[in-house]
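hi! just following up on the protien thing from before. the input was this:
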Amino acid sequence: MAKMLSLLIGSVVAILGVILFIAWWYEFLFVVRGIFPLMLILGGSVAVVAGFSEIKDILKQKK
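and the predicted 3d structure came back as:
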């Protein structure tokens, strides 16, 4: 019985999510436009730190 109930609740929540996703499409895009530059900044920062770390390791190996 619990498995059927979880299947039913999961289906209802998924359908509600699709409906709200369609209804709030412009708000979703607004959030994505706000988060995307932040993700690029953070991703670029991680890449720079990883590059410096790799260069530092290479210089240690040469010594």
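Helices lie at 2-23, 25-62.
The chain has a mean pLDDT of 93.
cheers
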